[in-house]
Each structure stands twice: as C-alpha cells, then as structure tokens.
Design a protein that fits this description.
The chain is of the alpha/beta class and about 475 residues long. It is built from 16 helices and 20 strands. The longest helix is centred in the last third of the chain and has 21 residues. The protein binds acetyl coenzyme *A. Acetyl coenzyme *A binds next to α2 and α5.
Length: about 475
C-alpha cells in the first residue's frame, strides 16, 4: 500500500483555515469553525472571510494568502461558483489538503467543474476530500472539522461514510450509544481521495482499531483495486462494511444519490468475502461488531460457551449461534463438573449453561471464571435476564473483574454480554461497554458480535 503522506495533513494538520467561515450562527461555515474551536483542536485555526474582521473571537483574513503562517489544511465552505479562485489561492499558499464541503458538482451533473476542481488542486500538489461532504473528525487530535454534532466520543472505531446526511445522523447516534470513534470521514463525491485510500491510511493509524464503512458503490473500474487493497487492510485490522443498494431498486436509488454504480450485489458480496471484509446487513450490526472487535482479542477457535440465568434467552442465543455458524462447545466433563458447583440441582451444565433464575452475581463470577480458565473454551457469551436476586450493576462489575483477573493471568478471550430488562439493566450494559466488554440488549446481538470476532479471527489465521 502506498499511502500518500499528504493525507497526514487531513487527519493531523498543524493548522487549519476555514474558508467561508461565516459570521452568522446556523450557517455551515460558522458551525464548522465553532466545532473546531469547541471540540478543542490544539493547532492554529484561521477563519477566512473577506467581509469579516473577527469570528468567534478569532482574527479573520481576507484570503488564505494573507495568513502569516503555514496552513496544512483548508476547509472550504463557499459556493461552487467561486471555488476555483479560492483553490488557486490555497495552492499558492502551499496548503496540502482541502476539505471541500461545497455541493453542486458531479452529484448534480456538474462534472466539468468537479474535474477543474481536482485538476487545479492537483496542479499544486493538493489533495481533496469531497466535494459535497460534511467534513472530517479525528478524535486523537481533538479535531472536529464538520458541521455535525460536536461531542464525538473518543475511541477506536473509524467511520467512513459515502452518505452525508446518514453520516451526520450516525455521529449523533454514536454519541447516544456511547460508541467511541477515532475518525469520521465524509467521502461525498470522492473526486480525488476515495474510501479505499482512507481505509489504507487508517490501517496504519495506531489510534484506529476497527474500520467501518457505509458504502453505496465504487467508481467504475475500482473493483480490483478495492479487493487488492482490502486484502492488505484486513490483515492489519478488521473492516466492516454496510454496502447498501442490495436490491435492484436500492441500486437505482444509490445511482441517483451518489452517482455510484451499485453493481451486482453478488459481485460485491463475493469480493468482500474474498478479502476478509465483514459485511454487515445494517448500521446497527456494523457498530455492534465494531464495538466487539475494537475491545476483544482474536479468538483462538470457534468453541463458544453461553452462560445464562434464563432458559429462554439461552435458547434464543443457541438459535443465533446456529444461524451465525458459531460452534457451541459440549463442555468436557471437568468443566461440566465445575459449572455444576455454581447452579442448583435443576440447572444445566450443558451448553447453554443455565445457572437458573437463582443465579447471583458471585455464581456468574465463578462460572465465567471457569470458562475463562478452561482451554477448550475459545469465546464466552453471558446472558442475563433481570431478576430480584441478581443486581445488574453488581453483575456488570463482577464480569469486569473476572475478565481483568483472567487478563492478569495471561488469559484473554472474546466475551460478549446480553442484558435484558429495564432502566437499571440498561445502565449496567452501559457500564460494561465503558469498561471494554461489549454488551447488548438481546441475546442475538451478543452472539452475532462473537460470530464476527470468530469469522475475522479465522480469516486472519488462514492468511498468516
Ligand atoms: N473567501 C472566503 N469567504 C467568502 C468568500 C471568499 N472568497 N466569498 C464569500 N465568503 C463568505 C461569505 O461572505 C459568507 O460569510 P457571511 O455568512 O459572514 O457573509 C461565507 O463565506 C459563506 O458564503 P455564502 O455565500 O453565504 O454561502 P453559504 O454559506 O450560503 O453556502 C455552502 C456555502 C454551504 C458551501 C453551500 O454552497 C453548499 O454547498 N451547501 C451544501 C453543503 C452540503 O450540504 N454539503 C454536503 C454535506 S453532506 C449532507 O448531505 C449533510
């Protein structure tokens, strides 16, 4: 992979100009500047607007050329009709990367202007993200150069999106769901930098553990490059893609949305399998898997143990395991005997291991500890239905403790949890997620997350 070092100017710029920084709250150019300041970007910020002296307390410049300092990146938020002159100014200033927010290019048939935009930028050695995007976030550098939600939570998941509105909406959703992100990259028309190049860049980013992509389609002729590139990226870290436009009608909708050729879905499906990309059916699944892959180690094998306090939850998880190809381990005799110590006589030491409704947090603790210890167990899924004898927060703390103890002893296995119940259960689930254990509100999602880890782990093992 030949990653262009110019892309550093996009993710880790030392200084940023906001061209078209507006004086009016609510306008895109104002909100981008405000997000940059309020999210705590530590580099220099230079608002550029010929009409203004100062915006949000920062001195304003008539042109980037008037800025008495080097500028790495410019966010451009001025109308398409006047963009070329500004791009020339940026080139003459020696700016390395442009984040072009502006719409009105190939997405509305204005192909010629888009070509001129790229040609002009390239003639000065500048790279372009966009046009027609909401911006870029890179949380390790406290940079939120978007007009989306401000308080993006820091974490290890990078999110690359070809859809602007969906991307912005999902930024808000990740905040609500407490999903930690390393980067959010809006791709728009991909006139220059495309999703493949961004994924390659993030493959070497130490702050990104998992790459997620919302993709509608690639540009014509990019198929082979996509496969070759993703083969390399997936050997470094997991890539999860939601590829929409699966149906014929959906593909037609994608064509009129981003001008993408959605292509035959089967071809995309085969291509993704070939290069180890995990294909999620929808956004929820994508982030469920990403949360698990960002926090859990690779699985040594496919043998899973489900530990539950509810028979029904266990049955649903078993069905899900069969659906997702997760192997339910028939516990060896010694493990069965160990499990039996932590359940009443009417419990079950088979898989799913049913501790019954009498299970207390300490019984869970012992059973999960036994599963961590036993070498035949490769992955663990814990299910919990709210009962009066098992406080959910206490259980969450116990699980965090069990995992910590195992890790301290050099044993690290993927674990996922499903907690079913009311408000206090939801709080406990959040506590688990904040402490590196992926937790979900239904058994199927916990099993699906484990299945994704197993699938990715086996792919990496085969590739090595
Ligand atoms: N250099 C710097 N600033 C300039 C220049 C210049 N040469 N010329 C004008 N400006 C200033 C203007 O004075 C204005 O500042 P003010 O508000 O203080 O007067 C500011 O730049 C913006 O210019 P406007 O002409 O007011 O443009 P406006 O803000 O209305 O629109 C925009 C610009 C946002 C880029 C618009 O053309 C556009 O493309 N909107 C769509 C953006 C978008 O949706 N992108 C895709 C996102 S993804 C999604 O779907 C959510």
């Amino acid at each position: 992979m030949n990653v262009d070092p110019q892309l550093d100017a996009l993710f880790k710029p030392k200084s940023i100009a906001v061209v078209g920084a507006s004086r009016k709250p609510g306008k895109i150019g104002y909100e981008i500047l405000r997000n940059l300041i309020e999210y705590g970007y530590k580099g220099k910020i230079y608002p550029v607007n010929p009409q203004a002296k100062e915006i949000l307390g920062l001195k304003c410049y008539k042109s980037v050329k008037d800025v008495p300092d080097e500028i790495d990146m410019a966010v451009i938020s001025i109308p398409a009709q006047i963009i070329l002159d500004v791009v020339k100014d940026c080139g003459e200033k020696g700016i390395k990367a442009l984040v072009v927010i502006t719409s009105g290019f190939s997405e509305v048939g204005n192909v010629e202007l888009e070509e001129k935009l790229v040609k002009t930028a390239r003639s000065y050695g500048m790279r372009i993200l966009g046009p027609n995007i909401f911006g870029i976030v890179y949380t390790p550098h406290d940079m939120n150069a978007t007009f989306g939600p401000k308080d993006v939570i820091k974490g290890g998941i990078a999110f690359i999106t070809q859809s602007g509105a969906l991307g912005i909406a999902l930024m808000g959703w990740t905040i609500l769901e407490e999903i930690g992100l390393s980067a959010v990259v809006s791709m728009g028309n991909m006139a220059d930098i495309d999703a493949i190049e961004v994924a390659e860049y993030l493959a070497d980013d130490p702050n990104t553990k998992v790459i997620t992509i919302y993709l509608e389609g690639l540009k014509p002729g990019k198929g082979r490059e996509f496969i070759e590139s993703m083969k390399k990226v997936t050997m470094k870290k997991p890539v999860i893609i939601v590829k929409s436009g699966r149906s014929e009608r959906g593909a037609a909708a994608a064509a009129s949305h981003t001008g993408s050729l959605a292509g035959s879905d089967l071809i995309y499906d085969v291509a993704m399998k070939q290069c180890g990309v995990l294909r999620a059916l929808n956004i929820e699944e994508m982030f469920d898997w990403a949360r698990a892959l960002a926090t859990q180690p690779l699985a040594k094998g496919n043998n899973t143990v489900i530990i539950t306090n509810g028979g029904g939850a266990g049955v649903m998880a078993t069905d899900a395991a069969v659906d997702y190809g997760v192997e339910l381990l028939d516990p060896p005799q010694d493990l069965k005997e160990e499990f039996r110590k932590y359940m009443p006589w009417f419990g079950s030491a088979k898989n799913p291991v049913d501790l019954t409704g009498m299970a207390t947090p300490d019984k869970y603790y012992e059973a999960v500890r036994a599963a961590f210890k036993h070498p035949a167990v490769h992955t663990i899924t814990v299910l919990y239905c709210r009962t009066a004898v098992c406080d959910p927060m206490e259980l969450a703390k116990m699980l965090i403790e069990t995992r910590k103890e195992a890790i301290n002893k050099g044993i690290n296995k993927p674990i996922s949890v499903a907690m079913i119940g009311g408000v206090d259960v939801y709080e406990a689930m959040k506590h688990l997620n904040r402490n590196g254990i992926p937790a979900y509100p239904i058994p199927e999602r916990a099993v699906s997350a484990i299945a994704a880890i197993i699938k990715y782990s086996m792919y990496v093992k085969r590739g090595k």
